[in-house]
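Dear support,

Our group has been running a series of protein-ligand predictions, and this particular one with magnesium ion is the one our PI (initials K.S.) wants archived with full inputs and outputs. We had some confusion internally about which version of the output was final, so please treat the block below as the authoritative record. The input we submitted was:
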Amino acid sequence: MSAFLRNSTVRFLARRLAYSAIVLAGVMVVVFSLVHLVPGDPIRIALGTRYTPEAYDALLVASGLDRPLWEQFFSYIGSAVTGDLGVSFRNGSPVTVNLLDRLPATASLAVVGLIVALLISVPAGIWSALHEGRVSDAIVRVSSQFGVSVPDFWMGMLMITLFSSVLGWLPSSGYVPLTEDPLLWLRHVTLPAVTVGIVAGAIMTRYIRAAVLEVAAAGYVRTARSKGLAPAVITFRHIVRNALIPVLTIAGIQLATILGGVIVVEVVFAWPGIGRLVFDAVAARDYPLIQGAVLLIAALFLLINLIVDVLYAVVDPRIRLS
Amino acid sequence: MTNMEPSLTEVEPQPPTTSRVASWRLLLSNPVTVISAIVLLTVIVVAFIGPWIAPYGINKTNVANALQPPSGAHWFGTDDLGRDIFSRVLVATQVSLKVAVVSVAIALGAGLLIGVVAGYRGGWLDMVLMRVVDVMFAFPVLLLALAIVAILGPGLTTTMLAIGVVYTPIFARVARASTLSVSVEPFVQVSRTMGTGNGYILGRHILPNIAGTLIVQTSLSLAFALLAEAALSFLGLGVQPPQPSWGRMLFDAQGFLGQAWWMSVFPGAAICLTVLAFNLAGDGMRDVLDPKQRTMLEARRKR
Amino acid sequence: MSTPVISVRDLGVRIGANRIVEGMSFDVEPGQTLGIVGESGSGKSMTVLAATGLIDVPGAVVAGSSLLADGTELVGARERTMRRVHGKTIGFVFQDPSTSLNPLLTLERQITESLQAHRGLTRRAARTRALELLEAVGIPEPEARLDGYPHQLSGGQRQRVMIAIALACDPQLLIADEPTTALDVTTQAQIIDLVRDLQRDRGTAVVWISHDLGVIGQVADEVTVMRTGASVEQAPITDIYDAPRHSYTRELLAARPMLGKATPPPAPEAPEALLSVEGLDVRFTVGSATGRRTVHAVDDVSFTVKRGTTLGLVGESGSGKSTVAGALTGLVPPHAGTAVIGDRSIFDARGRSVTKALRRRISMVFQDPFSSLNSRNTVGTAIAEPLRVHRLADGRSGREHRVAQLLELVGLPTDFARRYPHELSGGQRQRVSIARALAVEPELLILDESTASLDVSVQAKVLDLLKRLQAELGIAYLFIAHDLAIVQEMCHEVLVMRQGRAVEYRPAVELFADPEDEYTRRLLDAVPPERPRAAAS
Amino acid sequence: STGEGTDLGGTSGGLVAAIAGEPDQLDPHMTTSYFAFQVLENVYDTLVEPDENLEMQPALAQSWELSDDQLTWTFNLRDDVTFHDGSEFTADDVLYSYNRIIDGELSNAWRLSAIEDITAPDEHTVEITVSQPSPNLLSNLGGFKGLAIVQQANVDSGDITTKPIGTGPFALESYTSGDSITLTANEKHWAGAPQIPSVTFRFISEGSTAIAALKGGEIDWTDSIPAQQVEGLSADSEVLTLGQTPSNDYWYLTLNQNREPWNDVRVRQAIAYAIDRDAIVQATSYGTAAANQLAIPVQSVWYTEYDTYSTDLDRAQALLDEAGVGDLTLDLMVSSDYPETVTAAQIIADNLEPLGITVEIRSPDFATWLDEQNTGEFDMLMMGWLGNIDPDDFYYAQHHSGGASNAQGYANSEVDDLLDQARTETDADVRQQLYGELATIIADEASYIYLYNPSVIQAWNPDLDYEVRGDRAVRFRDVSFGE
Ligand SMILES: Nc1ncnc2c1ncn2[C@@H]1O[C@H](COP(=O)(O)OP(=O)(O)OP(=O)(O)O)[C@@H](O)[C@H]1O
Ligand SMILES: Nc1ncnc2c1ncn2[C@@H]1O[C@H](COP(=O)(O)OP(=O)(O)OP(=O)(O)O)[C@@H](O)[C@H]1O
Ligand SMILES: [Mg+2]
Ligand SMILES: [Mg+2]
Ligand code: NI
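Confirmed final output from the archive:
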């Protein structure tokens, strides 16, 4: 029987993997097309002040834009798969290096942000669902709506004003790698991560509340109550555990969303992450860098979803054993 | 108690009434929804008449009068060029709302088309369209919008287009899911067995029945579009000066955080309030449309 | 007479301003079964939930008293008290076995939960007990099943597990709320036997809720008949059958479909064949999380429907009945086979006009009267839709006129055309569906469980209508049902399906008199007999 | 969090400077980014370099001679200079660097346009032959680090964009993309070892953030200062020193004379009369800049007095009427990369409205801006010209009918003659007069409408003995912490 179990899980994962690969291929096509959609000559625009015929020719050859379209496409896909995303128009160094330089900062922010979001949303969402219709539920609902409605950059601006300028508790900007000094890292990551976390937490609170509500209305919860179980057992073993499955998806999506959405927060907090890199790249028309960043984030999105699927298979016997 | 003969009539028991009239009544019975509707209405009215009721010209600079705190003459104070912030917030309503409405209209139009076609036709077309949507979905919203701006250059039109494009997959998914669930409803099956054409089925049965979901999604998307516009403008890539938009005003306020709180607080509050109103209204509508929530509301209303 | 296990007095439930249940009183003694019967929405579930303190509707207010044998008052009791009682003194089995079990927990966990909570058993002891319970409720290979999950069980098996859970702590009272409604007749019969056996062995008192008087007759010693939140009659089961005092009870009894009670009106002499189906084969590809597989829904089925007669299609749930109907109406593409109506081949039809013409000859009425009408269209619009599609009436006034005719034909007032579906009762809606199906003047009407969701009294009226229409219009019916009693009442010929195959296809009279196939026999045996079991024994 | 700066800066005792943006790359010949030059100022040397009065002083060249015909310059190089990697600096490096710029037609090639030939008679001598007397050759060669002497191996390996190797007072230690660049002292620098062990340049574009960091002791120096905060900051002398000095930079407007009706001098003059220079100065710099109707500021030796225009709407209207033009739409192109232009544009739009001129503002990024400028896609544009030393640098390029930056299409043969003459005039007084004369014509005809000269504003830790320079060069080689 166990061979069969493993077999079905493997089949499930194989399907998800194949699906991710298809979507990733689509993503690559879109990313590849980006630079070709630019009206006018991307190289001319990218060079700007640095334009000289020689520089132009050099960049043209270096970027491969002089070759036939299909050849460019396959070479782009080919090198992208091997981790070569071309060379930045702006500083001439490999895009991959640029991105990897920035990834730790963004990852720190995203992960800590997600943790903050979870710390807010899990208790708030469960509490509010279990107290549906009461005043505390209304408070959670309205404040989560509020959290969803506040522009994150505005919140960041307010946070800097309060915690940095007025109270002087935390630094308003800068990044210290975790490996260098964990304490300093934490001090620096706090404000931006809280900004990110509040917004993401507000969104997740709403999903968690809905998920818990849905589970709480399920037949098996009534069965559990009919057994005379303690409320804590019903809440955690029967409600929260089942509600965790959709929450897992949401947490995954949120992590991906944070990864791709921290641009403004990174700009506000001068955080040297991928978001700011993209922002600068957009200003500088550094198309290879934009392409690379978009591809990286989209690929991370797919990877996170894949991981969520794997976790699903671990948590849910219906998938594990079907 | 066994022998009480009730007056037996031939009337069969009536199921509980669930009409659209009742939906409206339920909506109006929720004070939060009513308040958000009033806020939205006000915002829309301001969007139309803003330029006429604004006390000052929105681009009227008066450097000598710059950075004045809120006062009787300038309710929301003045900005770094001495322009009246109250007037600018009023007039910016139109720009911000226009961006939101146009981009959501783009997303709704494209998403509805893709979603309904995919959900109704099914088969390989569904497969292909949904994979395309999945691909679009894999891009984070703001990043994709930025990429589009990088291609087309910043500006009002680009902003609307970019936001429209990035929200299309959501509408496509919602429309497809609702279309799928409606098209397996027996009343659609009946129409098929009667030989009714696809046009009639789509127009008379499917669209009206997915409209509710789409209205909710539209309301929520308007909220997100407003935020996206603000974010793009905040990055200096959205609405361009001197045209005021709430996000652009926050962009301008960045340098004055310590000195002139009113420059960032009022446009920020305007965004927050409008987005909140769209979200709450959408939420209220969903509560009414969702049968489970609805019975709860009805029960509470009768208490 | 021993002391009642539960003694309910003047119980009432209010939700908001609505009085859902009023003045319910009953006692249940050890070893006895109280049956509660009544149509949907009459307050049966609310009554028992209120009496046991398990009501979970926000804003529900319970009045009256519900006393256990040990003197515990359950109405208004504190949560601690209730928790002590639930699962230990009172066990519950709910209607839908597919949602009543937690999909993420092993069966062992779900069965032993209450043992650990109430009896403080160790894990090992609880497991041994769970094993006994699974054996007692007749689950094969209980040892292996204990570590399994609910989705690995069939519906009937899940309901057995539910019963095992309910009985885990040897409760004095078992509450069964429509425990068999979602199951096949054959499985239903097994569950009824199971509960009776367990009750005999353990002396448990049972409250059994059902809308089906036949089932109640099988299990109950005493019966309460409910209507709109109140009991209209309460008496021992034999008295209810033999000397019903209330007109509603009499109506319920009369409308109850029973084998051997009625036969269809005579078929026309030597009717010609209308529809011939040959070797029909339908397959579905279903995608699940773990992959695709093929479901062979209909496997080599052949039959003929003659003009003016009714062919019954019976079989358990999932046997492929609806799929046959779907293939004939173009909803599902067949994999193989032919079907000819008159001289037209159905499956080879190509081109819009040809298929449209075909759709006029066969129309269909679905099971659920609520969802087969678009809630956004008036009755008039719904009935006019086929008229419009096939251009069967001249203009607006012509259509209105025809709609009125059709409404009259199905026995509804003509001003119903302006009503919306939600303003109609279930029976009225089903009449509207029938009127709509008749609008194209079909030669064959497919009725897919068209009366199954109606209350028995309403069902009887709709069946009468169908019989009248066949007599007046000479339409042929393909009558799909799982209730053999109505099949006997309606059909001239019967096709029994099982797992997509035809197992028996014969004239109705012969089939009911002398079923050949083992499966048909089982189906017939499982139908509750006319007399209550208590009277028979 | 005082003292944290040292945590961030690496070695203790180092200096942390916040600049307002990240360099695009670190190749001095290729970059055009001021942020890059702020860093490279400390990494590279030029043959000669300006002192605080912007007069050229020996640097890599310890002396030079000019031939009597004014056409041959001989530079004697220092013989004790090495690159950061230890390799010796020789005349070949000078040849390589200049030829790279000239042959590659890099953006600074125009500064070397007078050069006919460069040779190296020996390892420590460089001879430059020019086609005509070039009094501004020294300022061209040493005016800024765009003419830095680079190392060929560094260029060939491609490392120069991220790991430049120079001869300057500091060597590049590390570069954290998006965050900072750290330099360490070059103990063997020809001008003596710097007094601070290291300099870390952090990139903080948000001015308020930078100020907060300076006040909090996280950084020691910054020029990322919003003008509007300058007034408030001068009161904070306890925690920071604010340095402010007038610069030679200027900001200007120009109208496209290849288009109607801007080819009419009266229309241009009308606009010159309509704009409110003081309001623009106030809004863009909060009074820290000096309004000016010509390019050159009062403190410069090249200064010429000029105040023809005053804000006079009646006069402006009269000029427009005279030119016979009515309601106009004006496409004003500024750049989002230079926020002051966006601010000024909004005031200009407001100023011109009473004249019936509808201003449509476009603010593309600078790359696009340049492109549009070069293709003449504008009615009016605003920009600044930064880091000026010799008047020839800008007047010739912008107003000679054949000038490289004459995007507005100004052509006046008298001005052309004056420019050609001034370019080769070796007598300083005569040159000064010539430039004064031609600048007056340019302003009268409103080829450019000059607006103001901004100040260089920087702030630093009071313990630091640092001084602001008018050419915006940020030199840390001589600074030290007071304690
Ligand atoms: N959650 C609820 N909120 C409000 N009203 C409810 C709720 N649940 C049930 N009701 C109402 O209470 C009445 C009795 O419901 P109940 O579930 O007891 O009926 P029932 O006899 O068990 O019907 P069925 O045979 O369909 O299960 C119905 O009119 C129903 O509309
Ligand atoms: N659209 C479909 N896709 C996949 N499988 C289907 C589909 N429709 C029916 N099936 C499968 O085909 C088989 C026959 O289903 P069908 O609906 O014909 O049964 P039925 O006899 O009508 O049952 P019931 O009495 O429950 O209505 C079932 O196993 C069902 O799961
Ligand atoms: Mg019930
Ligand atoms: Mg069926
Ligand atoms: Ni710090």
